Queue: 4 jobs
Job 1
Amino acid sequence: MSATDSPPLPAVPDAVAQRSPWGEVLHTLLRSPTFLTGLGILLFWVICALLGEHFVPYDPLDADIINTLAPPSADHWFGTDQLGRDVFSRVIVGSRDILTVAPLATILATIAGTALGLVIGYFRGIVDDIVSRVLEAFMAIPVVIIALLAIVALGTSKITVIVVIGLSFAPIIARTVRSAVLAERELDYVAAAKLRHEGALHTMFVEILPNVIPPILVETTVRLGYAIFAVATLSFMGFGIQPPSPDWGLSISSNYGMIGGGFWWTVLFDALAIASLVIGVNLVADGVHGAFND
Amino acid sequence: MVFLGGQVLPGNVGRAILGPFADQRAVDALNHSLGVDRPLLVQYGTWIWNFLHGDMGTSYIFRAPVAPFVIDALGNSLKLALIAFVLVVPIGILGGVIAALNLNRPLDRIISLGGLSVTVLPEFVTGIILILIFGVWLRWLPIAAAWPKGAGFFTQIYYLILPSLPLFLVLFGYIARMARSGMIEALDSDYTRTAVLKGLPWRTVIWRHVLRNALLPTITVIATQTGYLIGGLVVIETLFRYQGIGSLIFTAARGKDFPMLEAGILTIGIVYAVATLVADFLYSVLNPRIRLGAEQ
């Protein structure tokens, strides 16, 4: 946040001043092993989600009653589940739903949170007091509980999951944006905009917003990790993505009952897939955080 | 707020209990006997009044008072949470302290990175992997938290070790990280340098000067994790089929058993408030700069 978002003090030639902060961030990112490892994992799953169904050996939804619960073998690398579906194909294609729902929820949270944060940071005073207290109350309730109630009320669908996770993460982003805006609004360029009689909306979204992008970006990547966490958990609880999707959390929830029988392959690979995706996104977030804070 | 949440959930209560084929007159009669056809405000007043008198209402599904269910479940959850806490607080702090004393050496890297990676994983993922390792492959620990009736204290603990481990792992990362940064700050301070320069043995410096200051923020973090812990309990209790408050809320939400749901969530709210209060109290006891009460 330090050097990138305040107007450069020394007189630097225009072209350099405009390009260098972002170029520098990109440069740092591309040399950060943390970021590159995370990006690699993330890209792998994105490719699986987009193209997976074209190269997996079996249809992930195709039941094969004769070959149920077969252990891993040359035919079925990760074995088959209780309906004889190929676990390898399901794990590969299973990335699709979570990689649709979690990013959409994160985008919703970012948009709602940024707008809210800009407003309460800019106006301060009584608006800020009231909204901030409400947001704090919201943040005290665990996401799982909010989601449970909302989904019982609204019924289960991907849209509900996106809205619930998006709205329960929005306060956290709003808080980050608010504190960034509080620092920005004291700067000269905001005062200049006010002297020009620019409207409040113009000042917030055209003047201040571009300058608080770095913290928003960092917070968004961090939230994406939590969104994946939340989507996977809700699907596992039966409140998220619904059958017959090969989603990872859902597969674990329908297979873990048989774990005592030793059918480890029906859950292990899904668990590892979630683990790798969550860790990958967190590595990316760590890299982005590092790049903006050095 | 909890009550309103419960009321906003659509769904005809009588219809939910009797099923879609029941006679409309029967549904109306049941709604009346449960009192759900009265105005909202009247219901709310009665609910709060009764809750304060220890009557949490009657479960729509079990047709029995909610209170015994909630109290049993709360007891079970507290056992589980307590085991996780008893394990994680000392080990997490120790991990953070060791990491800080070995700053930027391999041991620090392992603790910090390892702690961070297990912290970001969903509990049911670590839970499944732990069940596979300790329950299915090594067969050291039981995979469901259902001990035989009348089991003794140690048997119960034995059954609860595996369910408490995922909670342990998630909390470990947070606590170790806070303890580590607290330690680093304290080690870097003037009073530590003074203590070293006046010739105190290193051990004394760590115990008397560094630790006390380093652990204050950690306590606050531990308290704020109570809220998280409750969310984690819902998942873990479902995974291990444990009759705790989390699985009670989960089952109540699925069955639209509103009195049960409301009582469960309100109970969690109270637990949360108490935990926050205890943390504030502990903080003031440990920090000589904030002494509450009349000591002047």
Job 2
Amino acid sequence: MTDPVLSVRDLRTHFFTRAGVVKAVDGVSFDLAAGEILGLVGESGSGKTVTGFSILGLIDAPGRIVEGSVMLNGTELTSLPEAQLRARRGRDISMVFQDPIATLNPMLTIGQQMRLAINAHEKLGRRAAEARAAELLTQVGIPSAEARLRSYPHEFSGGMRQRVAIAIALLHRPSVIVADEPTTALDVSIQAQILYQMRDLAAQTGTALIWISHDLAVVSSLATRLAVMYAGRIVEQGPTATLLRDPRHPYTAGLIASLPATSKPGEPLAQIPGTTPSLLSLPPGCPFAPRCARQTPACTEEPALTIEADRGWRCFHPVGQMHEEPA
Amino acid sequence: MLGFIIQRFMQAVVVMAVMSVIVFCGVYAIGNPIDIVIPPEATEEIRLNTIRRLGLDRPLYEQYFIFIGNLLQGDLGRSFVYNVPVLELIGGRLPATLELVLISVISATVIGVSLGIYAGYRPDSWLSKTIMAVSVLGFSVPSFWVGLILILTFAVNLGWMPAGGRGDTVEILGIEWSFLTADGLSHIVLPAVNLALFKLAMMIRLARAGTREIMLTDTIKFARAAGLSEATILRRHLLKLISIPIITVFGLELGSTLAFAVVTETIFSWPGVGKLIIDSISVLDRPVMVAYLILVAFLFVTINFVIDLVFALIDPRIRHGASA
């Protein structure tokens, strides 16, 4: 593997609320190679979205990155002054959000919004900026792009709006795009289209993607690598095929078992018992232990990262490795 | 869009018709202007003549239709007291009110929205907290009292500003204006501040509430993720997104202040329409009262209509909804 474009090390983002400190992201590390697609999977509240925002330095008060490093193309982002960070957002790294209806400004035309995004990083004349915008819209599959620049967001369908958002994210050919469940709010038929289109666009432009999703089925058809998050940590990561075929962490195994495709028709879907713990009162040690069938007294300690070839996991009693379990 | 305009126009006509009936009946229900118009020692003959001349001997509905007939020909009647056409009377006073109200409402809006955006953008800074504390004062202190205190402080004790009147005026297009002379401007300052205080407080609160809400939305986060600077985000995104309630309140405040700047105009002896209406009420000058209230109704109908058009202009969703 060549040098990663994005390297996240021991990232911790905490929210200092009145009820206590919420450790939304608590020690996340991963690398992203150029052109790679990393699927970041987890339940709601596992910290996937906060991880995405932390990478871009877009954490609002009362939240704050308390520790860790985010290296983008060799630049440390967490210690960068806001002005320099802003100059990288949208140019070197950009983001696509979950709900396209909420992300575009309803009172500005698509063209105006795209020009704002272009002019944030380079001073282009109106003509040139519009040409660039139209080119991007065509690339994401919006017909008669020139004319559509004068349309307002409400004149587009949800899927089309998301394409516009993707076009905006792609405007400056960033090295990384964080896609935060960009297809969740869309019709299933549109979902697949956008999914594969984004994969192709990323491949064409050499852009690496972090694809955040709660839907393992969606991500696994797209991502080259998977990182499974639970309670603010990555509990397991590795190449998609390896992880799906041979999961180590019981949580990953549970997620895979609950996929409809892996269940027999007519039988109830497998579930992971219990619910996600409150981030305010995490149990000591492994956060998944209370829901885990393989839990032992050892699990009250924080499991260290086990690395094996191109994958890693955090568990004392990994699945499929019974022989290695300590006596 | 045309259908929308026609529909609003019909609504306006109905509102004006209803308004004229209410105003006419309401004003005619109080007092007897004859006792004020003629001296107490006048003979019965003079008295009856005056009643006939003013048309007060006819039944109310007849008086109403005569009034409406004249109104449609642009004649709003003659003042009982001054014996000049009412329109001339109101028209002569309107510029004074207009300049005072426009200056105070516009500056209240510009300053209020700026302060409100700041307070909403940095809710925890001490400056924001000061702004909000001052805005509570602006809401809760009665306007007449503020007026008196302003006079007492800046006119009487410090002697910086004159206490009342319009000061020097210059004539432009046949109308006298104060705000174009240094002396006139110094006369406007205190009443304008007095009028603006409440509106300022309201604009601060509106802008702050809007800003706090909008800044947390995905629209702003997405703009930040695209690398837009905070100044661009505030100017190009936020300002438009919070503008609808601000324009609504601006219009309503403009109307109600134009119509009812009575208290401030009285305290600062500002020769505007507010003072005219108060004087007319105290001498039961019915034509002035009726004409004034009808003009006010017309003013509000017009302002609301303009506001709707402005909405359609700035918000594409309304524009397209209206044309559909």
Job 3
Amino acid sequence: MIGFLVQRLIGTIPVLLLVSLTVFSLMHLIPGDPVQVMAGEVQDPETLARLRADLGLDRPLYVQYAAWLGNAVRGDLGKSIRTREPVTDVVLQRLRPTLQLSAIAMLLAGVVAFPAGILSATRRNSRIDAIATAFALLGVSMPNFLVGLLLIFAFSMKLGWLPTSGYVDIFADPIAGLRSLALPAITLGMALTAVIMRMTRSSLLESLSQDYVRTARAKGLVERRVVIRHGLRNALLPIVTVVGLQVGNLLAGAVITEYIFAIPGIGRLIVDSVFARDYPVMQGVVLLSVIGFIASNLVADLLYASLDPRIRLS
Amino acid sequence: MKARAYPGSRIDAGRMSRRALVGGGLALGGAAALSPLAGVLGGPSRLAAARQDAAAPGGSLRVGLYLDAATMDPHFSGSKVDRQIYFNVYDPLVTLAEDLSIQPGLAESWEAPDPTTYVFHLREGVTFHDGTAFDAAAVKVNFDRMMDPELKSLRRGDVAGIESVEVVDPLTVTLHLAEPNSALLATLTDRAGMMISPAAIEQFGEELARNPVGTGPFKFVEWQKDDSLHLERNTDYWMDGLPHLDEIRYRVILDDSVRIAALKNHEIDMVDYVPPKFVADTRADANLQTIDIPSLAVWFIWLNTTAPPFDNKALREAFASAIDIAPIVERIYLGIGKPANGPISPASWAYAKDVPVRPRDLDFARAKLAEGGMPDGFACAFKTEPTPSNLQVSQIVQAMVAEVGITMDIIQVDTATQIADTVAKNFEATWSQWSGRPDPDGNTYQHFHVNGGMNYGGYDNPEVNELLDQGRVVSDRDERTKIYGRVTEILQEECPAVFVWHPDEPKAMATNVQGFPPVPDGMMRFATVSLD
Amino acid sequence: MVLRRVVRARLAPLGIAICFFVVAAALFAPVIAPYDPAATDIMNSLQRPNLAHWLGTDDLGRDIFSRVIFGSRISLLVGGIAVGAALLIGTTIGVVAGYFAGIIDNIAMRIMDSILSFPALVLAIAVAAVLGAGLAAPMIAIAVVYIPAFARVARGQVLSTKEQEFVLAAQTVGSDHRRIMFRHVFPNITAPLIVQASLSVAFAILAEASLSFLGLGVKPPEASWGRMVSEGRQYLQDAPWLVFGPGVAIFLTVMGLNFVGDALRDALDPRLRM
């Protein structure tokens, strides 16, 4: 187990290097200059040249990358070019809303998707199955900015139940926090719900047709017990895989959800920093997203092993 | 004197309030409009008047911004939205009134004994939010910070003409200029004239970006990046009885439709800008008042005069004559603002009233194509940031010029690329949105003078250079109006740019928001604002 | 055999019909569309659906029905080429990695991990900045994102296929690697890849919509469904038909592709999962 973890962690180092190097070169190769963006409307070439030198942006690229890497290894991710805040602070500050948003979205997806998936598998071709399938299709075929805007019009403007936008930390004020995150979480969780529901349905259907389930039924076990003990347990494996891969998609979806609902999260930070060519922030977020991806895969692997005794972590 | 709102009629609240506010503003402006160089002896008549029938102090104003501020340090600010906050935290030396006249700010009065010397008499008893006193030495510290090339202030261009700053006595400071600059006072109504506490500069250094300390009506409390910014009432503000509000809470809501939805839903009381698309919507809402504030801005198409195809004047004319400005303003910008006849907006006193908007003339355009050696038309590329309204305009222009055989390719670029390409003259035609300056010089010299710092089209016309130089030396408004009128004529004839739109910048707010001064620079000054 | 099972599945005929219509619309767009999709007429903008304009007109007075028809070309092109490229590259990587195993496998899979953890939006923005936003930006970004998915599916299939007897037999006979891979391994792994591809096209159409929202879509005046929805969102309240036409087109196409994908999956390999 510990050996497995160590091995996985060592395996992440080349991934981290590769991704950070790619992002770094990509961003420096494209046109645009953070100092020009910062200056905005009024461009005074002389001052900007001085600023550039000040920030070390006039050095050769490999020197800049080496310098960044050297500092990063020592835990110093530098300062934002745009706001001059330490990158670590910026990133950690923005992580909070996104984590809360994603957690609620996943929770919501789980709470809706599993029962719906189980129902539609056990009552195959029933009306419930049809409704669930239709919902799932709607969920995967609507662009999420459209989902977000429609929710705002319905629940904020027409019904007046929830605020249109904004972010309140859930730990600071649980009720206001939940109210402010409800619509964004539905928006973000919609596609995920649909995917989990479909996965649950199809893999449950499959495992229910296996021999051991038939054996269990033959033994005279109650149907609910058969479904949960034998069917669902075995159906969970592929679901865990899909959810693990979807975590990455959540971050991408968060960009647009955060934009629409004015949530100061990491998704927006990454887009803003790319558009502003704020290299240090960009590198910091990318580093974080790689770590997040690797961690979620690791968790999926561990869950895998605990669900299926045949799988050994080695 | 304060613009009170129309209790009663809820039907046409928007228009009523607008008339009330603009009317009040003009009357005040008229009373105070003395020569810009003479200063005003009686103090700030408008604000003094506002104080008399002030509503009971208090309340929290929630304001929606379309973008987050970048920095709280005016000397290092390049973003327009930063200024929305600065005008409540900092006071400039002189202030801009609704009619663009220059009014006293931290300087009570001023005079110009000769065209290169400005003497400012400072207000007594003003303190910064940190308790330190505002005086002539503080003014010098601020200007030195902007002028020092080592400090790389983004204000350096604004104060470039200033040679030295001299502290005469604690309440008198003199600016010595290298050459005459009629636009100086107008420049000092904005970021370049805002005074930061020298103690805070000393204490915070670079960190001033997140710790603003000014003399303004509100004090900085907290800033959650990309989320909210909180200001509270400055109880020691130098104007008695002001401000009325207890606090201001800014919130950043990027999406236009969501920001307007939040306003209609009473989650915020005011928005900094209503895009044309939503103006009819806010006007129709009985709980909102919408004020159309004319702006100094100009949106135009740069044509690169240093490279083909637009180094050919005939082809520039053909392109410009193929475009019909009026329907663009009418249908895309929904009539919120005016078709442009040149770089100077109708909000400015220097607006060229007698110069018509360049008409569409397809025969003329075809003749010019022939003259330019391209009788069947030509291909060109147009760069723009892909915002919805930019894409609307570029596609309409594309369709219009196609009628004379000009094939316009639309190239969508992000902000950083757009700036880089424009500065490097790496474009044929590109979309530009200039927010405008109170003095006509700010809308012309830098863009169209051969020595202009932002002459991205590479335009060089000896007559225009000469006129723009004159515009800086001459101080008489009538004479300057003639100069800039002539500049407008030449620019329209020669087409280094196709001028499209002078936008209005409508502000929408809840009906209980009172006393908002509609200054054409689009900034939200909350000192006199109260909640009913 | 396979085909018959596909057709027998309940929703498959519907899915096939939808896909057929979309492809037909794309192929015969100039014949079907009543107007030039780029012809602006701003004096007649934002018209409700009527007899002259079945789906109304947009903010520039263009016929929405014609734009939806022509939009099928762009959407299918973006989805098709992006997924096609990802299929080709991903499968090659997956097959090579799975077949040779060992260090090659290790390196290839680390690279796939890197791509999976790479923020795709950054890539899209970068490509758009270099080439100017247009068809290429969404296509390249989407293609890159889907490469690892195909690589993983292909690798998994290869790993199980290559232990089978006919492959082992070919190896003992001394066939070279390339021959074995193309002759024996490829045909046995196509089924799951086709399923994966049909579902990916649906996601790619949506991804293109999201990129349009961020200003990274196709070049105007060309219209993809995603761009139409993204630009029409401003008018959601007062002219919802701007979003309705392209929105329904996306919904139906994604639904059709899903039905076909599901049916293919059932028909080709009942045990196969997404």
Job 4
Amino acid sequence: MNERTDPGVVFDEASHDWVAYTVAAEDGARRIELAVEGITCAACMTDIERGLKRVPGIVRARVNLTSRRTSVIFRPEQLSPDDVLRRMAAIGYPSHPFDPALARDSRSAAASELLRAMGVAAFGVMNVMLMSIAVWSGNVTDITPETRDFFHWMSALVALPCVAYAGRPFFRSAIGALRRGSVNMDVPISLGILLAMGLSLANTMTHQLEAYFDSALMLLFFLLLGRYLDENMRRRTAVEAETLATLRADSAIRRQPDGSLARVPVSRIAPGDTVLIHPGERVPVDGRVLSGRSELDMSMVTGETLPVSVSEGDRVHAGTLNGGGLLTVQVTAAAEGTLMAEIERLIEEAQSAKAGTLRLADRAARMYAPVVHGSALLTLIGWMLAGAGWHVSLINAIAVLIITCPCALALAVPAVQVVAAGRLFRNGLLINAGDAIERLAAIDTVVFDKTGTLTLPEPVLRNAADIDADLAALAGRLALSSGHPLAEALAIATTARQPIEGASETPGQGVAATLDGRALRLGSLEFCGFAPAAAAAARALHPTASLIAFRADDGRAAVFSFGQRLRGDAVDTVRRLMAAGLKVIILSGDRPAAVAEVAAALGVDDWTGNADPAAKIARLDALKAAGARVLMVGDGINDAPSLAAAHVSLSPVSAAHVSQAASDAVFLGALLRPVVIAYEVSRRAYRLMMENLALAVVYNLIAVPIAVAGYVTPLIAALAMSGSSMLVTANALRLRRVAEPAARAAAVAPLQPSLPNEAMP
Amino acid sequence: MSILLFLVPVALSLGLVGLAAFLWALKSGQFDDLDGAAWRILDDEDIGEPSELPRPRGDERRSA
């Protein structure tokens, strides 16, 4: 974060309406939740908590090191939320409050329900197992029928409420599936558990030797464990994604009815409101310019990298980046402008087209349920025909259902998913969709967007070598006074530190200042006094670049050319993907000349420029029709429909909101390497899933004949079930050896520009 | 074996105490931050330094 000093330009400091972000805590205190930048270790936690607790008026401050959030409870009469934020910034941890209006943390509720159910199941299985072992050893020695009945009744007393409580997640989902007229994995699970309980209860009442209470509870415990780990992984991902979204601070400066300015969350902006957009800010909403002139970087919306100038009466779109001028905009639509509505319609169409693909686990359940239920029925009929009575036939049929109860099968896919998602998480990839891994494993084509995906979102100075160092240094100092994105890039490129006093900015044109009696100007070519012919010549020299000029009154002048920079490892990533046998395509909304340059640097022959969202989808559909499975990697709003349409999709963390929502996973950091890692981990994970399903089938091939023949005792059931579950889980854990994140260190390492400068004239 | 009539319920109720403790811990947020707790134990802030007085807010800059 570079500190912006605006000595020349004074804007009204818009007050932040943070009070809306607080919620009531006990005794009239207010609580505010903060997303904090830069919590990396335990020392940061101590720093923040100590730093905050010293401030009078703060009741409690607690950092959650797992989710990297801070919860602060303060007395509103002594302290305002702004004081808390200022204090955080003073300690060295800039932070941003969470908007409590956003629905969040539904995952936490689900995870804690599963954890509670797991606790209950664990209590049940431990105690019932203790009594079962007594019965099993008693059955082969000298237990009296009265003692056995007592143990069975006590087991029933523990098991019935435990199953009723801990089984709810499965029963709920099974009933839901049956209502929709379909079958999922929870249907055979629920049926197996209920039958086992029923049979055990009947056996207990009729003083039989055996009951299956422990098997039913153990099954529940293992399944809940799998579900909980799965849910927990997803929750971690969701929490991380939400923190990132909050740190990006989607807010807007609104002119209040009384004429004052306030910074409010975008969710509170309504059509008809007037908002101010400062230089260098992203436009938060669709609207019409009331006053002001500026240039907009539309690359997030169209992929086009050359800025477009706007003035009074022009339409602006959410997601575009404001250049040098202050704009006052009347909001026409907060979320669904014409452009956004069109894009959302395309996303919806694309998603409904994709809904047909069935998850691997559900496919397995669909094949599995009829086979198991059929064999149980055949067992019943077979034993009846063989002349064994009703009771024996029924017990054997139920034994088949219990022994095949899909413990291994139900764990086979989720266990791998959990380990794989954990692997990806540690490599900086946040998975949105649970089945993204199995879809990623099937791809054979990778389509990249150019702007913001293959290249970094920020522009970079390209002709530093052609400009005298002292002139560049002076220009860099002047650039510190401007909020224009190109000026910021210039300031970064020249490592300027000292702003020039008294610089004044002409919105949409440039900055001017006087230093030691010399008049300096930095801005558009015209602003710096270039004659139209000279300006045209400079533009012809740098056809794909954005230009700003600098002139000192002694006649020395320079033209700075800015271009996009490839992500640090783009070349390497593309090469590795190609080496893995994948076809790489670039689809961009930018000018063909700019796309060609990038494609040549990467060695990609198949590229298209000037592609609008519909054209991108058309291309994806053509690929799909040709039988390709496409991974789409993109970031812009214009990519969102194609992200949703592709077989599977990834977007960088800098991507627009709608693109992240439409894609299956988001990757962090400035490198592209996560794309390769995602592919490799998914391939390996898919293989493990198939192995696990094979293991489950083999287990059933062995166990079912034993059950059909009527030899299953509760002891065998217990051993077989826990044995197969552990086998499947242990197999899934083998994935931990893949992609040990060396990439994590590299993801935060500084990058070197790698788009060859010599490609420029 | 009538001692069992007494011992089994005792064992079960001990198990229930454990379960109740777990549910309480879950409800009171003990599982919310599994990483932080390991470090919090090393913090001696709670011992308190007598010389340390609350300072007025906002004027102390400890930029990291």
